[in-house]
Design goal:
The chain has 613 residues and is α+β, with helices and mostly antiparallel strands. It contains 20 helices and 12 strands. Strands 6, 7, 8, 9, 10, 11 and 12 form a 7-stranded antiparallel β-sheet that branches. The chain has a 5-stranded antiparallel β-sheet with strand order 2-1-5-4-3, sandwiched between helices. Strand 6 and strand 7 form a beta hairpin. The longest helix has 46 residues. The protein is rod-shaped and about 180 Å long.
């Protein structure tokens, strides 16, 4: 399609005025041409009629010649239609009479032929007139001076030879007419220009008003007003333009919304990747999944079913009925014997189904509100093995569009990857913890008096940590550090460890080395930076009188402060070769006595409160 040209910065009213003026001049010119040509045809028709009456009134060629002589009655009759015309419109008329003598045409009357007259063209016109009775030579007139002619057969039975009368004239051009009517033309031109200007203003206002409105509304749309309608009702070009722009606006808004939605989807996928794949354990994973689903689908319910660690059924790990009734639970859901083949097939395949289609689904229906009748099941499959299902529930089937199903499928796939990583990590941790328990058992085995001491210190430390609401990671490090707090005693001989009497100064110095020895042994345990701190500083005292570094107060890491009180309490309540065990009341008195000396005061208060409970 050719691109239309725009007249630069010319105002629209001026463009229309110039076009109206040009159009008026064109109409005037065409009118002049049409009137001149029409007048010529009427003149020839008039001549044709007068010729017939002239021939009837004459009886011989001599009488006809006499009628056509200069200023004769016939010639005046032919010229009478031209008498009232202005000079520029009055053609110069010549009337000639020709006879055919058998050899050719001979002029027998009228003014002599000039050299400009084409004899061959004249002969052809006379032949046509003799053959057809009449012959016109009237070329198109476009405003320039040109010739016209007319020939008619006037042969009469009284004439001896065929006779043709020939009329010729010259049309005046447009320039003489303009020169003759110059004042009138200037006056009417100015009047027409004024009329064109007023008319253009009227048209401009009529045309510009909807265009101006369209421009203002389009500016609003460009500023973000997406609800504005640009549709002008009608069938003209401006209305169609507005409808096209309105369609483009709607399509653009749709594309923007689609792009925004795609960006939101990508952001959601990114959130899923970061939140789910960064989960360190099951509890963290399940919390992230619940948060993501609740943010994406706040009115939908969520169930996460996982094959339990024993493999004999399913556990319900997360349940979320909607943003206003969110809760996280972990409980047994159904055993393998309770799951029918139909129920198992429903859970092991991706599908959207009505809760009534679950077969023996009383377990799931008991968990769902009555209105949550539609269930989208996405199985978690790892290495071709079924590990559980992510179930999103809704009261409407329309909730689950293709895109929503795709997002939930992506979430489920990431949950599967994260769960697999967590399972591997749990296996590694179990293996590591088993190895560490074996090490602690080796320490306890060096002396029959300390059997079970490390495990008891671990359990006491965990109770304190839970009461302090430590994080899962901190509790895990506290558990390992407490379990291994005396591992440095592997480097000390049994003779010193089991000596029934008081240790010498040298022997005590050897005993004081076991925290450093233990820290050196455990320094390479990966992923647990605070474990070594608990081992190294668990004999530091709150008042700075402990070993190996003489730290005091808050300088002592909290993990070491916790292990210290648990270690001392278990030691004084157990029998040793050099003393008897303390009673619970005596141990309590000892702790209170050492409050702010050996132990952090707040920990003493907390520990006694736990012991009393």
């Amino acid at each position: 399609m050719i691109k239309p040209k725009i007249c630069g910065n010319t105002p629209l009213w001026l463009q229309l005025s110039l076009r109206f003026a040009f159009f008026g001049l064109l109409i005037a010119y065409i009118t002049f041409i049409v009137l001149t040509m029409g007048w010529s045809r009427k003149l020839i028709s008039y001549y044709h009629g007068q010729i017939g009456r002239l021939v009837e009134s004459t009886g011989s060629i001599e009488e006809l010649l006499q009628e056509l002589q200069s200023n004769g009655p016939a010639l005046r009759l032919f010229q009478s239609p031209l008498a009232g015309l202005p000079d520029p419109f009055r053609p110069t008329l010549s009337v000639r009479l020709f006879s055919f003598n058998g050899l050719g045409w001979e002029q027998i009357g009228g003014p002599p032929l000039t050299s400009e007259v084409s004899r061959e063209k004249l002969r052809q016109q006379l032949d046509r007139a003799l053959e057809k009775g009449i012959s016109r030579d009237h070329p198109p007139f476009w405003g320039r001076e040109n010739d016209f002619s007319f020939a008619a057969d006037v042969t009469s039975p009284t004439f001896t030879d065929p006779v043709v009368i020939h009329f010729s004239g010259i049309h005046s051009g447009l320039i003489p007419v303009v020169s003759f009517f110059l004042q009138e033309i200037l006056f009417f031109s100015l009047l027409f220009l004024l009329f064109s200007f007023l008319l253009s203003q009227l048209f401009v206002k009529r045309i510009i008003r909807p265009i101006h409105w369209l421009s203002e509304e389009a500016r609003k749309v460009a500023s973000g007003a997406r609800e504005t309608s640009l549709n002008l009702h009608g069938r003209d070009e401006i209305a169609r333009l507005s409808q096209t722009i309105d369609f483009m606006k709607d399509e653009l808004s749709h594309q923007i919304s689609l792009a925004q939605h795609q960006a939101d989807v990508l952001e959601t996928m990114n959130r899923i990747d970061k939140a789910v794949l960064s989960s360190a354990n099951r509890e963290h994973l399940l919390g992230n999944v619940a948060d993501i689903v609740s943010s994406l689908y706040p009115k939908n319910g969520l169930f996460l079913l996982l094959v339990n660690r024993k493999g004999n059924g399913l556990d319900l790990l997360v349940e979320r009925q909607g943003i206003d009734s969110a809760q996280r639970v972990e409980r047994f859901f159904a055993s393998n014997q309770e799951l029918s083949s139909q129920m198992r097939a429903s859970l092991e395949n991706s599908r959207l189904f009505h809760s009534s289609e679950l077969g023996i689904s009383d377990h799931l229906r008991r968990e769902m509100p009555a209105e949550r009748s539609w269930v989208l099941n996405m199985p978690i499959v790892l290495e071709d093995s079924y590990y559980g299902s992510l179930l999103v529930t809704s009261d409407s089937k329309e909730t689950f569009g293709d895109e929503d199903i795709g997002i939930i499928k992506k979430l489920t796939d990431q949950v599967g990857v994260a769960l697999q990583n967590i399972l591997y990590a749990e296996e590694r941790e179990q293996l590591l913890f088993g190895s560490l328990k074996a090490l602690s058992a080796a320490v306890d085995a060096k002396s029959s008096w300390t059997a079970g001491h490390s495990e008891r210190v671990r359990l006491l430390s965990l109770r304190i940590g839970e009461e302090l609401e430590l994080s899962e990671s901190d509790l895990q490090q506290l558990s390992i550090s407490a379990l291994l707090h005396d591992i440095g005693k592997l480097a000390i001989s049994e003779a010193i460890l089991d000596k029934p009497g008081k240790l010498t100064d040298d022997e005590y110095e050897i005993i004081k080395k076991h925290p450093r020895k233990g820290a050196e042994i455990c320094d390479n345990i990966p992923g647990f930076p605070d474990v070594v701190k608990g081992i190294l500083y668990h004999h530091e005292h709150w008042d700075g009188s402990g070993y190996p570094c003489g730290l005091a107060g808050d300088e002592i890491p909290r993990i070491a402060r916790i292990i210290c009180i648990a270690d001392v309490y278990d030691a004084i309540t157990a029998k040793r070769p050099y003393r008897n065990e303390m009673s619970p009341e005596a141990a309590k008195s000892f702790l209170l006595l050492q409050r702010g000396v050996m132990f952090e005061p707040q920990l003493v208060d907390l520990f006694i409160n736990l012991r009393d409970q």
